[in-house]
């Protein structure tokens, strides 16, 4: 087993990953992770722009002077570990176990990817100091939290500054069974809502003097569950509607509640807009005669990079290193890629296995991070050395 202290025989990627993982950077506290990355990028000649918003640390770094921009995007924040007693090893004391697994919070999501990105760029820039195109990093400490003052805010800054961002690789853990088996080339949209239904509180023995919002809402909610919102398409599954929480009642067994609150979420495809989903939802509720209002939250529009230089280069990069052809997928939840895609950028997500993300005993195969770094370097070569990118 490799202890936290014995890292002298490790690759540069694993050394950096473990150095980042030692820092308990729970959202939005970066714990110096970004300064560690900035120091190394500055040594390569990157121009650094620190972009703090509120309590969130962000930075944008660029190397090169002209041509298309490939950005590596990711986050230094991690989710809380929970009680350390449940972990096999302390979550912020990373180590490689006897099975060759790098263990600790952030191994998969996503300090391993950050280390692989940075070391790939270090090798590429050292070999190609005058490379065509520009290489960038967009890093935040607020992806696991509200995600308001992180990548979203940086993207708005880039938009206002008219900064170019042609291609983006997000280091989210996209792989499922083995490294590089899945590349995410899009994500479904996410639209949340909180439905408030007003009734009239009363005694359960006198229902004629009350109006039960549970009874009124039940058939309406059932209609929403049964609704066929769309059929999906070649890239996205059909839109889904899920109720996550229902709240009503005082806790007393003899009181008809006066109101009901239902929290729900749409994961939707490019076949429908969030405006259409809102209109159809409200129309269904109105047909049931409810006294209601809905608080809507648009968490992200769907995006898709169906084809183009980045998808081609990423597919080829995985094949160059691992001799396997990845599957393109839009499954899963939302990511910061949704904000970056709004700039018109080609966006893919490629990272290690996601089986243990957010779990106790998070871990990835250590050798995968070295291979991942080689894949990122291969994508850079495909775009900027082999001439597959467009000016």
From TrEMBL:
<feature type="binding site">
    <location>
        <position position="109"/>
    </location>
    <ligand>
        <name>Zn(2+) 1</name>
    </ligand>
</feature>
<dbReference type="GO" id="GO:0009014">
    <property type="term" value="F:succinyl-diaminopimelate desuccinylase activity"/>
</dbReference>
<feature type="binding site">
    <location>
        <position position="109"/>
    </location>
    <ligand>
        <name>Zn(2+) 2</name>
    </ligand>
</feature>
<feature type="active site" description="Proton acceptor">
    <location>
        <position position="143"/>
    </location>
</feature>
<dbReference type="InterPro" id="IPR011650">
    <property type="entry name" value="Peptidase_M20_dimer"/>
</dbReference>
<feature type="domain" description="Peptidase M20 dimerisation">
    <location>
        <begin position="185"/>
        <end position="290"/>
    </location>
</feature>
<comment type="subunit">
    <text>Homodimer.</text>
</comment>
<feature type="binding site">
    <location>
        <position position="172"/>
    </location>
    <ligand>
        <name>Zn(2+) 1</name>
    </ligand>
</feature>
<keyword id="KW-0479">Metal-binding</keyword>
<dbReference type="Pfam" id="PF01546">
    <property type="entry name" value="Peptidase_M20"/>
</dbReference>
<keyword id="KW-0220">Diaminopimelate biosynthesis</keyword>
<comment type="pathway">
    <text>Amino-acid biosynthesis; L-lysine biosynthesis via DAP pathway; LL-2,6-diaminopimelate from (S)-tetrahydrodipicolinate (succinylase route): step 3/3.</text>
</comment>
<feature type="binding site">
    <location>
        <position position="144"/>
    </location>
    <ligand>
        <name>Zn(2+) 2</name>
    </ligand>
</feature>
<dbReference type="InterPro" id="IPR002933">
    <property type="entry name" value="Peptidase_M20"/>
</dbReference>
<keyword id="KW-0378">Hydrolase</keyword>
<protein>
    <recommendedName>
        <fullName>Succinyl-diaminopimelate desuccinylase</fullName>
        <ecNumber>3.5.1.18</ecNumber>
    </recommendedName>
</protein>
<dbReference type="GO" id="GO:0006526">
    <property type="term" value="P:L-arginine biosynthetic process"/>
</dbReference>
<dbReference type="GO" id="GO:0009089">
    <property type="term" value="P:lysine biosynthetic process via diaminopimelate"/>
</dbReference>
<dbReference type="GO" id="GO:0008777">
    <property type="term" value="F:acetylornithine deacetylase activity"/>
</dbReference>
<feature type="binding site">
    <location>
        <position position="75"/>
    </location>
    <ligand>
        <name>Zn(2+) 1</name>
    </ligand>
</feature>
<keyword id="KW-0457">Lysine biosynthesis</keyword>
<dbReference type="GO" id="GO:0050897">
    <property type="term" value="F:cobalt ion binding"/>
</dbReference>
<keyword id="KW-0170">Cobalt</keyword>
<dbReference type="InterPro" id="IPR050072">
    <property type="entry name" value="Peptidase_M20A"/>
</dbReference>
<comment type="similarity">
    <text>Belongs to the peptidase M20A family. DapE subfamily.</text>
</comment>
<dbReference type="GO" id="GO:0019877">
    <property type="term" value="P:diaminopimelate biosynthetic process"/>
</dbReference>
<dbReference type="InterPro" id="IPR001261">
    <property type="entry name" value="ArgE/DapE_CS"/>
</dbReference>
<keyword id="KW-0862">Zinc</keyword>
<dbReference type="GO" id="GO:0008270">
    <property type="term" value="F:zinc ion binding"/>
</dbReference>
<dbReference type="InterPro" id="IPR005941">
    <property type="entry name" value="DapE_proteobac"/>
</dbReference>
<feature type="active site">
    <location>
        <position position="77"/>
    </location>
</feature>
<feature type="binding site">
    <location>
        <position position="358"/>
    </location>
    <ligand>
        <name>Zn(2+) 2</name>
    </ligand>
</feature>
<keyword id="KW-0028">Amino-acid biosynthesis</keyword>
<comment type="function">
    <text>Catalyzes the hydrolysis of N-succinyl-L,L-diaminopimelic acid (SDAP), forming succinate and LL-2,6-diaminopimelate (DAP), an intermediate involved in the bacterial biosynthesis of lysine and meso-diaminopimelic acid, an essential component of bacterial cell walls.</text>
</comment>
<dbReference type="Pfam" id="PF07687">
    <property type="entry name" value="M20_dimer"/>
</dbReference>
<dbReference type="InterPro" id="IPR036264">
    <property type="entry name" value="Bact_exopeptidase_dim_dom"/>
</dbReference>
């Amino acid at each position: 087993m490799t202890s936290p202290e014995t890292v002298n025989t490790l690759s540069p990627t694993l050394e950096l990953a473990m150095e980042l993982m030692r820092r308990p950077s729970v959202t939005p506290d970066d714990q110096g992770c970004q300064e560690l990355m900035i120091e190394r990028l500055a040594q390569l000649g990157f121009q650094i722009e620190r972009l703090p918003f509120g309590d969130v640390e962000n930075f944008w770094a660029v190397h090169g002077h002209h041509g298309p921009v490939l950005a590596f995007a990711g986050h230094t924040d991690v989710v809380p570990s929970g009680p350390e007693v449940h972990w096999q090893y302390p979550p912020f004391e990373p180590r490689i176990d006897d099975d060759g697994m790098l263990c600790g919070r952030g191994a998969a999501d996503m300090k391993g990817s950050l280390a692989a990105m940075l070391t790939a760029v270090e090798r590429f820039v050292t070999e190609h100091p005058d490379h065509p195109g520009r290489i960038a990093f967009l890093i935040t400490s607020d992806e696991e939290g509200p995600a308001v003052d992180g990548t979203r805010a940086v993207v708005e800054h880039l938009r206002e500054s008219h900064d170019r961002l042609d291609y983006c690789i997000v280091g989210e853990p996209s792989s499922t069974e083995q490294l590089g088996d899945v590349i995410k080339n899009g994500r479904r949209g996410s639209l949340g809502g909180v439905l408030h239904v007003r009734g009239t509180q009363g005694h359960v023995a006198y229902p004629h003097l009350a109006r039960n919002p549970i009874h009124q809402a039940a058939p309406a909610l059932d209609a929403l569950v049964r609704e066929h919102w769309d059929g999906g398409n070649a890239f996205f599954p059909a839109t889904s509607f899920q109720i996550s929480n229902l709240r009503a009642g005082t806790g007393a067994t003899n009181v008809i509640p006066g109101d009901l609150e239902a929290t729900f979420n749409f994961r939707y495809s490019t076949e429908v807009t969030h405006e259409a989903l809102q209109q159809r939802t409200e129309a269904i509720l109105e047909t049931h005669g409810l006294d209601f209002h809905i608080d809507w939250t648009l968490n992200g529009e769907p995006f898709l990079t169906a084809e183009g230089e980045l998808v081609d280069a990423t597919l080829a990069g995985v094949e160059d290193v691992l001799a396997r052809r990845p599957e393109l997928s839009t499954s899963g939840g939302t990511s910061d890629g949704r904000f970056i895609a709004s700039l018109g950028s080609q966006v893919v997500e490629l990272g290690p296995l996601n089986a243990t993300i957010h779990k106790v005993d998070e871990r990835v195969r250590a050798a995968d991070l070295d291979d991942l770094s080689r894949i990122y370097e291969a994508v850079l070569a495909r775009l900027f050395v082999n001439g597959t990118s467009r000016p």
